[in-house]
Amino acid sequence: MVDGGNTPQILEIGHQGLSATIYDTKWIPSSARFMVLGSHPRSTGLMQMYELQGTEMKLLKETEKKSSIKCGTFGASGLADRRLATGDFAGKLCIWDLERMNAPPVFETQAAKGYGAPELVTCGRDGCVRVWDVRQKDAPVAAFEPREADRAAPRDCWAVAFGNSYNDEERCVLAGYDNGDVKMFDLRTNKQRWATNVKNGVCAVSFDRKDIEMNKFMVSCLESQFHVFDARTQHVKKGFASVTEKLATGATVWGSWHLPQNRDVAMIGAGDGSCFLYKYHYPDQRRVKDPDGKPMGVAGSIELITTKNLSTQPICCFDWSPDKEGLCVMGSFDQAVRVGVVTKLHKL
User: Fold this and answer.
1) Averaged pLDDT for residues 152-168
2) CB distance 328 to 307 below 8 Å
3) Short-list 237, 236, 164, 156, CA closest to 202
4) Alpha carbon of 339 to those of 11, 102, 330, 331, 342: distances in Å?
5) Distance in angstroms (rounded) separating the CA atoms of residues 330 and 37
6) Annotated domain spans of the chain
7) Does the predicted model carry a pTM greater than 0.85?
8) What are 139-152's pLDDT values in tens digits?
9) How far apart are CA 285 and CA 38, in angstroms?
10) Which of 37, 198, 204, 251 could tie 24 with a disulfide, CB 3.0–4.6 Å?
11) Does the domain made of 4-15+112-347 have the CATH classification 2.130.10.10?
């Protein structure tokens, strides 16, 4: 356990109420600015840029888009451009130049960084996972569709994430579905690599790092559960070893976000408006052999470090600052954006 005097604390340092629903918040890399994305009451898209000035949140720019915006990422853009990719409720993938937020997107397609191509991955109610190269607008470079038998009534795909992108050839996509299915697709072979079912709808999936050889990943679920899978060893039959944790409050786990400066620390956003800070501890041996001599992974353990209730509504989005350890921005369904800081993370 962490010593009481050295326990990190979750502090709110800024709060901004909005007359819109917030779906995502993202720090602009190498800056004190962040983006807020969501939906106005008339179902148009909210896009705002704020700057943190001391403890004050100053609105720099805002624009309204045709369709409500569900999510955003800077993952397919370099530091020089810092272009924002968004997915909206009309099923479109767009990339925006933030210097000209009111202008049309520089890239747009109907969709329903590290090594490798500048790619984005999307999912939707059609159950299809699609990978897009931002240099190629007309069609996805890869598409993983439901099986023939399931196409009449496909399961909703609720979450996707890139990982294992440690050289120019390797890259995987992790996908989570409403029935608890979790699937891993290998983009090098263009095939499904692994699948399991966690028995509850999957709200979010995330690798602890996207640009390294797979280390571990988290799966956030309904019914207050989340799972951590050790991805270094895949058993031929049992797949990846995992450990499961359940929130004491019984709230839905909306997402998990790994600290950029320490991949073994992650924040959990819960349906009761609370944030939970956890640390993963590796076992003494991460790999053993089964009775047949096949390598098999061993899961570690999860420690709750601290928790804080910040809202009466779910924490639906969260983003750590890549530049300032502990600085974070989050949104919740109480229509408020919060800037926070987690102290003493260097002591973990």
Assistant:
1) 92
2) no
3) 156
4) 9, 25, 6, 9, 10
5) 11
6) 4-15+112-347
7) yes
8) 889 999 998 878 88
9) 44
10) 37
11) yes
